[in-house]
Amino acid sequence: MSLRIAVRELCEFTAKEGDLDLRFTPSPTAQEGIAGHATVVARRGPDYMSELAVSGEFEELTVSGRIDGFDPEFRLLEEIKTHRGDVARIPANHRLLHWAQVKVYGWLLCQALELDELDLAVVYFNVISQKETVFRERHSAEALRQFFELQCRRYIHWARQEQAHRLARDAALTTLRFPYAEFRHGQRQLAEAVYRAARDGHYLLAQATTGIGKTLGTLFPQLKAMPGQQLDRLFFLSAKTPGRRLALDALQRLRDPETPLRVLEHVARDKACEHPDKACHGESCPLARGFYDRLPAARSAALKERWLDQQAVREIAIAHGICPYYLSQELCRWSDVVVGDYNYYFDLGALLHSLTLVNQWRVCLLVDEAHNLVERGRSMYSAELDQARFKAMRRDAPAKLKGVLGRVDRHWNQLHREQQVPYQVHPLAPDLLLAALGKAVSAITDHLTDQPEGNAGELLRFYLDAMLFCRLAESFGPHSLFDISRVEGDKGRSYSTLCIRNVLPAPFLGPRFEQAHSATLFSATLSPSHYYLDLLGLPQETQCLDVDSPFSAEQLQVRAVRNLSTRYRDRDASLAPICRLIARQYGERPGNYLAFFSSYQYLQQVLDLLAREYPEIPVWVQSRQMDEAARQGFLERFQVGGRGIGFAVLGGVFGEGVDLPGERLIGAFVATLGLAQVNPINEEIRQRMHALFGDGYDYTYLYPGLQKVVQAAGRVIRTTEDEGVLYLIDDRFARQEVRRLLPSWWQVELLRLPLQTAVLEPQPDL
């Protein structure tokens, strides 16, 4: 086995010591770093050598890199590091790492030039003051050799373990067996398509109804494909916690405790943090103190454990006295399967995507409930600046920032005065505003460098928001809108919000898909496929699969009420007929039902009337901003043998990811087409979608709306034994262009609801 590694990566792994220190210290940009290196080199003598390539071997490991600078006259090797602010504020663990790098370079140079000793220097160059701070030491070649070999031994020991793990993992996955005697109906069809995509390096968009075991049906073939395709990592990406739990449950069924497969659940920092009241550095948080000193032991313990869900990672971290979240980040480098949120691969600064590029991994993606990626992708590549918050922040800002913030304020006020309507789209963000924001970001960067402690949270928030805004402005194009919204504030004053609003995430998500070996996106609602191909940036040759449903039309009675409108103008007239319909169905077959509405206001109107006219029917209701306990309490009302109606908002937390099989849920009422509100923002999106794809209304309103309807309806039938009823309450469900977007296994019965009686009259299909 031969190994190769760069000097920096070697030291990053073997030589980190001391505290975890995440105090905000602005770093030079890449351009500033390049310019700083050039400035230092230009100050040296004519014989000075820069970017000097060196390499050396120890046992089976080859270590290589480029020395920043070497002065042969003085036998001086220099490692150049650019920085901002006081050099004393460079964290100690960073300095130790810099010295480790220069020592490794020192031995490689001594070996190449047959030197018996060498002067080493770390040169810190301040990109603002242009001042150099030099720390210099003399080392013998023998001492440098010993240091080099120590780092190599540490790495080789680890690399041999990793190589053995990889061989054992691939051998185990080659013989991996499906955990059940047979596949469910449609599950084999899905699994075969996923395997072919992974084998051939293609992309798959798979629509598969609930009940076939989508999670297991995608994970099993993906794992089976890993050895043959020499795949390094599998990322299972989900929008919500229930999706992660389903993935972990499926992986538990696929493996036994002896299977050499490392599975990591990577969760958000706020969910993993043990001390949310403390800052992430050793002077504040005990789990940051000495983090890198204890990390190797914790890492080894974790990877021996192999099953690394959130609880397991926490227990290992606490046992070793380190932060669970940053241990989990480290374990992302070494785990075979990572289960996490979309943003860890698709966001601008996504950890998993960055690791993929740096390590040149061959990765496969499984994107769960992929219909959610459209809106999540839009939010990842959008940015807002709020004027009211900005003005409040500016009043309390440090004196030396008043000038640059005042310039932003003047340009912003001018835009605000010129806009007389509540909402307006502009061709692009004004250059003068962007220039002012750029200067403000630069000035705040310098301020935070000089004074990293004691800054107001609002200043940091504006700084980060403004940086994102400027970054997205640089890539602005037809995929986004620049809009300004005016809102009324206190005392008759109005404020505005500036927004770079992404409406087409494809240009950002597409390259992420291309950098994966293959990707499978799956959901019960991926129809029509061209909508998702267009918005997510998937290649046109992506295979689109509509998996055969295991359910029959006899299991779900789908009844569309064709003579009742739930449009906003007709809602008052719809209240009594909807209540009579709910009461009639409940009277004919008592049990648990869900009733979905387009808004809390509409929900409350129907609920109030139902409670008044039919007080004998038990009801419970989704409220705004329910916490986890309240959500669980809502779902616990759906018990076997229970009776009542749960009222919920379509597209909310109970509209998908809820599993209520059997008698826990026997029917649903959907009193809306799910269309987004017609407002200036959505109308601008409609126009942009029309310009890009020619189907502005469908892309903005119809497709997203019906996706929510089908997701909500999917709560009723969860297994092949379930039976239930679904009422689609709106006259537009009778239209052919709407019904063709509903699941193919549904047989929709059109009904006319007499507005004064509770008798339902079947109507011929149109």
Automatic annotation (TrEMBL):
Gene3D superfamilies in alphabetical order: P-loop containing nucleotide triphosphate hydrolases
Occurrences of domain Helicase ATP-binding (ranges): 173-418
GO biological process terms, semicolon-separated: nucleobase-containing compound metabolic process
Keywords, alphabetical: ATP-binding, DNA-binding, Helicase, Hydrolase, Iron, Iron-sulfur, Isomerase, Metal-binding, Nucleotide-binding
Alphabetized GO MF terms: ATP binding; DNA binding; DNA helicase activity; hydrolase activity, acting on acid anhydrides, in phosphorus-containing anhydrides; iron-sulfur cluster binding; metal ion binding
UniProt cross-references to InterPro entries, sorted A to Z: ATP-dep_Helicase_C, DinG/Rad3-like, Helic_SF1/SF2_ATP-bd_DinG/Rad3, P-loop_NTPase, RAD3-like_helicase_DEAD
Membership in a protein family: Belongs to the helicase family. DinG subfamily.
Name of the featured protein: Helicase c2
Organism for this UniProt entry: Ectopseudomonas mendocina (strain ymp)
